[in-house]
């Protein structure tokens, strides 16, 4: 049996129970599972591997509950810089139609590397466009190579422009094929066991890009395999108008009528919900992934996260697409979540500790997991450490945990996933970044130029 001892953290934050903070803290890991947490003086003195966390704050690895990794290739595209969601999508669909398997694999490595350096140890990605032989397998391979815990959401679009949908017909798929390939992905890759490194979710893209029939069939497929369901919902006022025009009801009622509420469902964004809809989510256990930077970037609005939390809705954080956020930094999303809940006038709209709770325990619960997001016996050995002696935190050590959120977002000094150190001394150990970045930039240039 392998053992790992992390010791002498200036502060260890468990996010467990009453969320204790342990000065000079540490933990013992056995076979990739946390066995003991507490003050260093109360832990064993020896292990096969020992990591000294002096000068660091250590906390659970962050959980990213919504992303589009392939969009790292289309950041800051000039024609899409000042557009709301529907025009932004219409601008980028033709570019994404040129994606290749190499582009999917390379962009996934880039986005996941960014996430890991920002403190993310578990990521869910929603891949919903599959041109030119692209498959969800290509990003699953990248996740396995880089060593992150991964939830692959097999997305889809089936409602093209000729049928009243938003995407061009050439980027949508046949619904029978979608269901077959989703079934294949589940049977090939999904691991339902505790501490799984790879799970698969069923994820039709949105009300304006798939049919009601596909939503129903996708929900039935997911539940027949016991996997989770994911989609975009209530992101913009335009989506609200689309649903009222096409289906005669608002997005949440539409989703509920199709079976898309429950403890096995989580929706991205959920900006435009009223009190009755919030209560429905709370009552049914439906999860929400809040994506603050993307919602601001696309002028979508401010999700009522305070209302969600007060009502008992499960809420996590996501960076969303790297072309609507232009970053894959999950700690930055925690900071934005805090600021966005305060900007309308409530200085206590969200606390720093609540923001980090959303990024850890909240995200884990949204993904249907109780084995990650906390540092406690029986939890997966996913942890991160930030150095506190850096310039960025000077004068903020009155409350080191709050400093992570209030101060400028930083990169981790240490990251351990499934008991394996993947970042040490601020360096990612599992991928050579220099050639990866060069390859990614080449693909991005060719993709956007059409060359």
Structural class per helix/strand content? alpha/beta
> Would you report the number of β strands?
19
Poorly predicted regions: none
What's the assembly state of these chains? single chain
Name the average pLDDT: 97
Shape: globular
Q: For this structure, what is the CATH class of the largest domain?
A: Alpha Beta
CATH superfamily of the largest domain: Metal-dependent hydrolases
| Major sheet characteristics | 9 strands, mixed
Give an overview of the whole structure.
There is one protein chain. With 451 residues, this protein is an alpha/beta fold. It has two domains: 3-60 and 375-428, Roll (Urease, subunit C, domain 1); 62-366, Metal-dependent hydrolases (TIM Barrel, Alpha-Beta Barrel). It is 36% helix and 22% strand. Strand 12 (265-269), helix 8 and strand 13 (287-290) form a beta-alpha-beta unit. Helix 4 (175-189) packs parallel to helix 5 (212-225) and helix 11 (330-342) packs across helix 12 (352-366). The protein starts with a strand and ends with a helix. The model has no long low-confidence stretch (mean pLDDT 97).
Task: List the main descriptive attributes of the protein structure presented here.
9-stranded mixed beta sheet, 22% strand, 451 residues, alpha/beta, Urease, subunit C, domain 1, TIM Barrel
Please describe the topology of this protein.
Layout: E1 3-13, E2 21-30, E3 33-39, E4 49-52, E5 56-60, E6 62-64, E7 67-68, H1 85-96, H2 101-117, E8 120-127, H3 137-146, E9 149-156, H4 175-189, E10 198-204, H5 212-225, E11 229-233, H6 237-247, H7 251-257, E12 265-269, H8 275-284, E13 287-290, H9 292-297, H10 305-311, E14 314-317, E15 320-321, H11 330-342, H12 352-366, E16 383-387, H13 400-406, E17 414-417, E18 420-424, E19 427-428, H14 433-449
Parallel strand pairs: 1-4, 1-5, 6-8, 7-15, 8-9, 9-10, 11-12, 12-13, 13-14
Antiparallel strand pairs: 1-2, 2-3, 5-16, 16-17, 17-18, 18-19
Helix pairs in contact: 2-3, 2-14, 4-5, 11-12, 12-13
């Amino acid at each position: 049996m392998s053992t790992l001892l992390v010791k002498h953290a200036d502060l260890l934050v468990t996010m467990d129970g009453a969320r204790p903070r342990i000065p000079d803290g540490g933990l013992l890991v056995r076979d990739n599972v946390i066995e003991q947490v507490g003050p260093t003086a109360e832990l064993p003195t020896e292990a096969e591997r020992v990591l000294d966390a002096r000068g660091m704050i250590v906390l659970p690895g962050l959980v990213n509950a919504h992303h589009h990794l392939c969009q790292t290739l289309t950041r800051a595209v000039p024609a899409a810089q000042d557009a709301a969601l529907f025009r932004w999508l219409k601008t980028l669909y033709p570019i994404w139609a040129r994606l290749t398997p190499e582009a999917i694999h390379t962009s996934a490595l880039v986005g996941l590397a960014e996430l890991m350096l920002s403190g993310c140890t578990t990521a869910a990605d929603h891949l919903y466009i599959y041109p030119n032989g692209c498959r969800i397998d290509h990003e699953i391979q990248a996740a396995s190579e880089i060593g992150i815990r991964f939830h692959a959401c097999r997305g889809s679009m089936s409602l093209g422009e000729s049928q009243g949908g938003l995407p061009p017909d050439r980027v949508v798929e046949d619904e029978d094929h979608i269901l077959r390939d989703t079934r294949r992905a589940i049977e090939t890759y999904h691991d339902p066991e505790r501490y799984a490194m790879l799970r698969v979710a069923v994820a039709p893209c949105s009300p304006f890009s798939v049919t009601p029939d596909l939503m129903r069939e996708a929900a039935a497929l997911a539940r027949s395999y016991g996997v989770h369901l994911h989609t975009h919902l209530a992101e913009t006022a335009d989506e609200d108008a689309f649903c009222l025009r096409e289906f005669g009801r608002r997005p949440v009622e539409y989703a509920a009528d199709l079976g898309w509420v429950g403890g096995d469902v989580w929706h991205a964004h959920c900006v435009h919900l009223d009190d009755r809809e919030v209560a429905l989510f709370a009552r049914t256990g439906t999860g929400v992934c809040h994506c603050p930077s993307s919602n601001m970037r696309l002028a979508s609005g401010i999700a009522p996260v305070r209302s969600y939390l007060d009502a008992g809705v499960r809420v996590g954080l996501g960076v969303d697409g790297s072309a609507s956020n232009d970053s894959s930094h999950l700690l930055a999303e925690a900071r934005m979540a805090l600021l966005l809940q305060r900007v309308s006038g409530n200085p206590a709209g969200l606390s720093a500790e609540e923001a980090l709770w959303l990024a850890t325990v909240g995200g884990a619960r949204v993904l249907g997991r109780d084995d990650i997001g906390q540092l406690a016996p029986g939890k997966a050995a996913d942890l991160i450490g930030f150095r506190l002696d850096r310039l960025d935190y000077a004068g903020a050590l009155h409350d080191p945990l709050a400093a992570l959120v209030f101060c400028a977002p930083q990169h981790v000094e240490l990251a351990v996933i499934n008991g394996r150190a993947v970042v040490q001394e601020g360096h990612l150990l599992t991928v050579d970044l220099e050639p990866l970045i060069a390859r990614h930039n080449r693909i991005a240039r060719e993709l956007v130029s059409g060359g």
